[in-house]
């Protein structure tokens, strides 16, 4: 009896449980139905305003027409399904929605398959959204992951399947989907990654584009070519598994596809330059929502050579506690041909070539000597090099050596500190500051004698610009990086005008004499490691405690400057301007001039020294003596 009673109670408990489960499921179904109906009430308003929001695209080209960078987002030409290679459609279906032409917008079979795979793996490895659901989300909904959005996405997918044909849905999806690098749509992606219209891509390239759908940035063939290749093989395997291609096609494409990979860009050093030129874009053309194409002055050959030289020097000298640096190469009209703003753009986007203000040390001395020449001094005039006290200020020479009575030229060539301070005292601090500002330095400069030794922080770009004024017979330079700007309808919005003519900052005579003195800095002074097989002029600079090391100089064609140091202002181990910076400068200048004949370089430098065809009196005397 007891056993029967227990069995009866168990059966009763099971029936009650099933009853309450049914009631609970019924109420849950009603609640879900009401919630779905509530969310569905918003759909009429949503479908009346489909959106395709994106930032305007800015495409930046180097001076040879090659693409440097893209900002914002680019939508390609809308293409019909007939213009899209069939293997691209199959590639997309293989990894995103194999039953696309069989379901009604929601794929229960695919959803169950995804759930089973995720349970087996213990994590989310496969989604259950159909292509129609993805298009509904992209057209009508936000990217938020909520129950409301998922329900509305499913409802919209079913509605779209009733309003559009399958081919229309696939066409819209291929023209709207995001594929990385700021591109929307398969045509824009094909142009960006393969430099060809969508109808010309190969089976392997189709697999690569379809592979981007999983994670556009991670599988980009530009930034991660090896990962992109591995992902393309996965897509080809999925196409073979789905019966879209044969096993032979899958294997042959996987084998030869690697060779078709686009070459990755040479580092990201150009981004310092492109960030710099786009910073003030709105001031040049005003606000706009149009796509823009910007032509620039950057020379890829010089840029890439400079990056390799720069990186190699830093790598070889890790033991000297130098971690950062900057470099600029400028043409004599002010065009920026190369810019390095730091050791690694990925690690730090702070541009040390344009934003950092570091003390230039003796690289500032040419402004003191130029002010003296402008004020009536001559290169052969004598000045004292001996210990000096100005109140509490007691400047010292490097290694504490003094030479007594020296010529102005030797004082600069040997970078004698006490002579420079005495000269500053004679010329006047205010006159030196005014001259430096006229020549291109915009930074605030301290009004004390320590300025003679470069105590005030100056951006590299301003120092290079001012040296460019010296190279240009005292005619002021204005650095620029943009040559022209057009919109996506090829309307010209901006073209660079030559603003560097006729604005004289200092006399031709004074700059001519200074250039002679600075040429001696390289041939027999502190800058001998910068010596080139053709005429060049420049100046070394080292701040107190080896915290900054500089070399800035020019030839007949180019003006360039190099800075080395550390962001935390910690000292380097014996790095001076006449050492590593001079070496980087020399190698970069050699790379920049490698396509030119030395005779042409020499002739151009002579022309730069005297634009009226005559030499200065001092130059003629020195040539006679030599």
Q: Widest sheet: strand order?
A: 2-1-5-10-11
Instruction: Determine the CATH superfamily of the largest domain.
Output: DD-peptidase/beta-lactamase superfamily
Tell me the number of structural domains.
2
Query: Structural class given helices, strands, pairing?
Result: alpha+beta
Name of the CATH class of the largest domain: Alpha Beta
Intertermini distance: 131 Å
CATH topology of the largest domain: Beta-lactamase
Query: Overall 3D geometry?
Result: elongated
Question: Could you give a short account of the major beta sheet?
Answer: 5 strands, mixed
What is the percentage of strand-forming residues? Answer: 5-15%
Report helical residue fraction.
40-55%
How many individual helices?
A: 23
Task: Walk me through the structure.
The chain has 626 residues and is α+β, with helices and mostly antiparallel strands. It folds into two domains: 78-260, Penicillin binding protein transpeptidase fold (Orthogonal Bundle), CATH 1.10.3810.10; 303-625, DD-peptidase/beta-lactamase superfamily (Beta-lactamase). The chain is 46% helix and 11% strand. It contains 23 helices and 14 strands. The protein has helices spanning 2-40, 43-47, 86-96, 108-121, 131-140, 147-163, 166-176, 186-194, 203-211, 225-241, 247-257, 270-278, 281-285, 300-316, 365-374, 408-413, 417-427, 429-439, 460-471, 508-524, 580-593, 598-609, 617-625; strands at 58-61, 67-71, 74-75, 183-184, 292-296, 324-331, 336-340, 382-385, 404-407, 482-487, 492-495, 537-542, 548-554, 558-565. The strands form four sheets. A five-stranded mixed beta sheet has the order 2-1-5-10-11, with helices on one face. The protein has a five-stranded antiparallel beta sheet with strand order 7-6-14-13-12, with helices on both faces. Helix 5 packs across helix 6, helix 9 (203-211) packs across helix 10 (225-241) and helix 18 (429-439) crosses helix 19. The longest helix has 39 residues, at 2-40. It starts with a helix and ends with a helix.
